[in-house]
Amino acid sequence: MDQQNCVKDFDVWSFYAQLDEWPFPPRWRATRDFGPSKFGRYPGDPPPYLGRRVDLLGRSLPVPLGTDPVAAIRQYLAARRTTSAQELAKKAAVMIDPRERVGEVAWPIDAHRLD
User: Fold this and answer.
1) Local structure of residue 101 (DSSP, 8 states)
2) CA–CA separation, 101 vs 93, rounded Å?
3) What does the domain layout of the chain look like in residue ranges?
4) C-alpha distance from residue 59 to each of 8, 9, 16 (Å)
5) pLDDT digits (tens, 9 = 90+) for 28-56
C-alpha cells in the first residue's frame, strides 16, 4: 500500500464442490457491512456503512465432495482457466473457514501460515 493505493474493501470468496451439473452461479456477489472495523470506513462507501465493505463472492469447483479445501483452491488458481482464477492468482488467499484452518495461506503455495 502506498499513498496512491489503499484498502477499499475486502473480498471474501467461498468455494464449493460442484455436486452435479448445476454450478454455483458464477456472477453471484453480495455486499455486507460487518460493522465498525479497525480498518475504519472507506470514504467512498454509502453513508450507512459503519466499517469496511466486504464483498462476498462464490464459485463452485469441479472437485469431489470432501476434497481438501486448500488443495482445491490451489488447483483452481494454478490452472488459471478463467479470468477470475487468473486475477485471484495474483493475490494471496487465506483460509477463514473451517475454524481449525483459519489463517492458513492457501495461495501462494510457498507462503507460510498467518498467525
Assistant:
1) G
2) 12
3) 1-66, 68-110
4) 22, 19, 6
5) 899 999 888 888 888 888 888 898 899 99
Which residue type, as a one-letter code, is found at position 86? Q
SS3 47: coil
Residue identified by cell 495474483 is 90
Identify the residue whose cell numbers are 470468496. 13
SS3 62: coil
Lookup: cell for 24: 454455483
Q: In a 10 Å sphere around its CB, with 0-12 CB exposed, 13-18 middle and 19+ buried, how is residue 71 labelled?
A: exposed
Task: Return the amino acid letter for 82.
Answer: T
Counting every residue written for the chain, the total comes to 115
Q: How far apart are CA 112 and CA 115, in angstroms?
A: 9
* pTM for this prediction: 0.81
Q: How many CB atoms lie within 10 A of CB 9?
A: 16
